[in-house]
Amino acid sequence: MTQDLEVAEIFRCHGDDYRQAHEGHLGRVERRVMSAIALCRTAALGGHAEGCVECGFVRHAYNSCRNRHCPKCQGHARATWLAARQAELLAVAYFHVVFTLPAAVAEIAFQNKAAVYAILFRAAAETLRTIGADPKHLGAELGFVAVLHTWSQTLQHHPHVHCVVPGGGPAPDGTRWVACRPGFFLPVRVLSRLFRRLFLDELRGAFETGQLGFFGTLAPLAEPASFVRRLRDLRRAEWVVYAKPPFGGPEQVLAYLGRYTHRVAIANSRLVSVTEDEVAFRWKDNRDGGKSKVMALDAHEFIRRFLLHTLPDGFHRIRHYGFLANGHRAAKLALCRKLLAAPTIEPVPPEAESTPFDRCPCCGGVMVTVAILPRPSPPRPPFRQDTS
Asked: Do residues 283 and 153 lie in contact, with contact meaning Cβ atoms separated by under 8 Å?
């Protein structure tokens, strides 16, 4: 039964009531996300009719919404993206480094998503580049993929960046490959201190140039003295940077990246039950040894938590840095492979998205498109005769 549960159904059942209850507090992005997910793969988006070439069975298949927040629309996008990344893999160990914002910064980030999430990316990237280039630690140019996640296992707002980094890079003069020590990447305490300083310096600059807004309980931070006190407290706190042990070479990297790049706040597979009042879902409690538990939330609270993680229009949640940056990636990768004496990897076209609808449910025959189902036309307002 759980495999049939969908976030879309929650929005269809409770979305209208939630919009009415939060009128004036829902932004355009949140409203559009709710609508897109609710209509995904329904007749409202149009589609096509497909028939079995063997037995003549016919069924309707409806279009996807393709919204990046939709749990049902990430499979093909993930496959296409990972196929492109395959040609960029190097025959070295890879590390996973996570940069997390403290709660006192996360609440500022929520009210200033575009500005603060961008600062998070820049500070994390500059931290890795700076420490990686330092001869005391590695002395090489790093290249890495950074992915923004904004959720915890219980869907609370928890912004952090996952970075997947090859364990080494070209020396500054480009004459040799510099590898990190086996099983060790960079010192997390050093990364943490620099990340904290770089982030808070940029956050202060954003405040001074009027890029930040503060509302509700954060309204006092609009006063410079109050904001300076918040920065002072944050400079004294420990910031979390976590470097996981190496997880192998390129054969494991694609599968690993696929778990992070196109993930949304919660997958449909985690839903346990949906009733008229509550939504229950599985979550992993890392403070209790990673045990799997079930949390039940009021339906409106579930929707509120899901919508915490909508991103501003045009904001890129996957970014490339160092020798993987878009501007010089091909040339830099060619240099890396030369230094590693490794052959060039040819990209493999992504496989077509696999679905259970490729075959006829009656006889197993091949299904082919037999008709296009257009979107329903919106109802027209009633005609009114001009009697003036």
From this structure: yes
Query: Tens of pLDDT along 46-83?
Result: 999 999 988 989 998 889 999 999 998 887 778 888 88
* CA proximity to 65, closest of 87, 92, 90, 47: 47
Distance CA 284, CA 293 (A): 6
DSSP 240-272: PEEEEPP--SHHHHHHHHHTTTT--SS-GGGEE
| 117 within 8 A of 125, measured Cβ to Cβ | no
d(CA 234, CA 231): 5
CA distance 263 to 46: 26
Residue 369 CB neighbours (<10 A): 11
Indicate the pLDDT class of residue 345, thresholds 50, 70 and 90. Answer: low
Q: What is the pTM of this model?
A: 0.88
Name, in order, each residue with C-beta under 8 angstroms of 286's C-beta and a sequence gap of 6 or more: 153
Q: Which amino acid is at 124?
A: A
Helix (H) or strand (E) holding 123: helix 113-133
Which position has the token pair 């005769």? 385
Alpha-carbon distance 112 to 114, whole Å?
A: 6
Cα 258 versus chain centre, distance: 11
